[in-house]
Amino acid sequence: MRVFLGGEGKTELGDYAGHPSYWPQPGEPSTPGVLEALLRKAGHAPNVVGAKTFKSIRKYRAGERRSRERRDILGLLLHAKEAGATHLVFARDRDRSEEREAEVEAGIEE
Predict the structure, then answer these.
(1) Which one of 25, 42, 89, 92 is separated from 17 by 20 to 30 angstroms, measured CA to CA?
(2) What is the pLDDT of residues 52-99, one digit of tens each?
(3) Alpha-carbon span 96 to 84, nearest angstrom
(4) pLDDT given at position 91
(5) Are 3 and 48 in contact (CB under 8 A)?
(6) Is residue 51 pLDDT above 80, yes or no?
(7) Which helix (H) or strand (E) holds 75?
(8) Is residue 34 a contact partner of residue 91, using CB atoms and an 8 Å limit?
(9) Biggest alpha carbon distance in the chain?
(10) Strand 87-90 vs strand 47-53: parallel, antiparallel, or unpaired?
(11) What pairs with residue 7 in β-bridges?
């Protein structure tokens, strides 16, 4: 399972929250974030091939006009494809905004 992770920071991404030059190398011990820990708890053996914080996502701008949240999700998907991931796993806080939640859902659907 080649996984690309997306989240707001170290809590979600663990050691993958920083610059790629600081990511753990294969076989090295690492501190997993919540996303990786949940995948392991569910019985998966994730091979993390990349990760991005939402603030560092290259924004997808082609095509119709989209909200920032939808562009973030499409940008995250593009990064995952470029990294050769088979799965994209991310977490995004709603921050008490039903509109934000709806835009994230729309990005997933798209």
Answers:
(1) 42
(2) 999 998 766 666 677 888 888 888 999 999 999 999 999 988 777 788
(3) 34
(4) 92
(5) yes
(6) yes
(7) helix 68-82
(8) yes
(9) 43
(10) unpaired
(11) 53
Task: Name the token pair of 5.
Answer: 């992770």
Cα gap 28→9, rounded to integer Å:
21
Produce one character per residue of 25-40: b if its CB has 16 or more CB atoms within 10 Å, e if not: eeeeeeebbebbeebe
What token pair was written down for 100?
A: 């934000």
The predicted model scores a pTM of: 0.87
Q: How many CB atoms lie within 10 A of CB 102?
A: 13
- Using a 10 angstrom Cβ sphere, with 0-12 exposed, 13-18 middle and 19 or more buried, the burial of residue 101 is middle
Place of tokens 């562009």: 71
Q: Which residues are bridge partners to 100 per DSSP?
A: none
**Owner of token pair 């076989």:** 27
